[in-house]
Amino acid sequence: MKKRFEKIKRVSGELSLTGDKSISHRAVIFSAMASGKSMITNLSQAQDVISTMVIMHKLGASILTKDRKIIIGGMGFKGFKAPSSNLDCGNSGTSARLIAGLLAAQDFTSTLIGDESLSKRPMKRVIEPLSKMGTEFQSNENITLPLTVIPNSKFHNIDYEMPVASAQVKSSILIAGLHCDGETTVIENEQTRNHTEKMLGLSVRFENSKIISSSSSKYYPEAKEYFVPGDISTSAFHIVLTLLTPKSELILKNVSLNPTRTGFIDVLKNMGADISFVDIKTSSNEEYGDVIIKSSSLKNIQIESQIIPNIIDEIPILTIAGLFAVGDFVIGNAKELRVKESDRIKSICYNLISLGLKIEESEDGFYVSGKIKNPKMTFESFGDHRIAMAFAILSMLLDNGGEVNGFNCVNISNPKFEEQINSIVT
Ligand code: S3P
Questions:
Q1: What are phi and psi of 270, to 5 degrees?
Q2: 277-293 pLDDT, tens digit each
Q3: Whose CA is nearest to atom 4 of ligand 1?
Q4: Is residue 191 lining ligand 1, measured as CB closer than 6 Å?
Q5: Of 11, 201, 279, 288, which cross-links 248 as Cys (Cβ 3.0–4.6 Å)?
């Protein structure tokens, strides 16, 4: 589906976003694992989270919607039942990696499958540690989905130092570790999002600039009530649109403000953005609050390598902010962008080249200079929701507007994108 966006004049008003996708996946999985009924308020409506819910249902959990709340009847410790067919993760890397960790510890064989994009994304990163715990895996020569998980009665805890900065891999191992009496320890050299640790109340310590998180059966989730704050990664699109539109001001209500997710706001503030947080609260150990954004003049800055894991999902929209900032926009140390829903370095560079900008692409990033020259633009989404939304926002900032091919992929994270934007722009 091709979608056209016209230049907007102003952003104003107040918006509540649906629940954070990362927290929602975990709330659904932990509720399905627990014994008894859990209730989730403001769950994400993303297609990715639906993939996780359908899989939990296939493993035996009951799922009911009541007054815009989700009630999940969980199966208890090792209580899941063998599914009658393959478990489809759709486009969702988080479902595939986290659920691989859960399945690794069960007593039955199961197979994870995914769509074309997910079937190209690396699974070796979870197979390696989970194999060390005793589980066997069958996949193809590229070590991608479909992936058959064959648990073993000798399943045991491990200590594992992460070779790649990935919250999905860390979470997969920690979730597997919830099924062992002994402690499973994950050592990170770079901080990645810590929702799994916070929501399960795991032990985390910092030692010689390493982050060491541990799980064991004593942290196995119990049935509870979850409130999922608004999605901070979704908010990045509304934030950048507001910053770059003159005479604009926006209030985003109850957004997740977990510090391992707000890296892009730190970057934008260092670029000169007027963004503030008010009314900060917590739920399930997760911080959230209101975000106030006002139009700002931005200048490009050097983006340090240690913040990259915390801004990885926001790099497409940060690039759009960089196009309107003084100076050249540069991203490096971000090789992980190549194995997201699309090769995001390639997707961004392709679209920027079509604008007439000068682009130097490298293995782990890109350098953007020059001025936007081409007035009539059609951008490619490459079936990647964050690329589609980033270039929709850019279209709203261009004098002649622009269009995005394959725009329906936005449903992967935010089916309400257009409705939300229409409610705050004139
Ligand atoms: C996620 C972790 C990140 C992120 C993804 C969601 C999570 O992936 O890109 O959108 O919920 O744990 P990696 O951990 O593989 O970088």
A1: -65, -25
A2: 999 999 989 999 999 99
A3: 313
A4: no
A5: 11
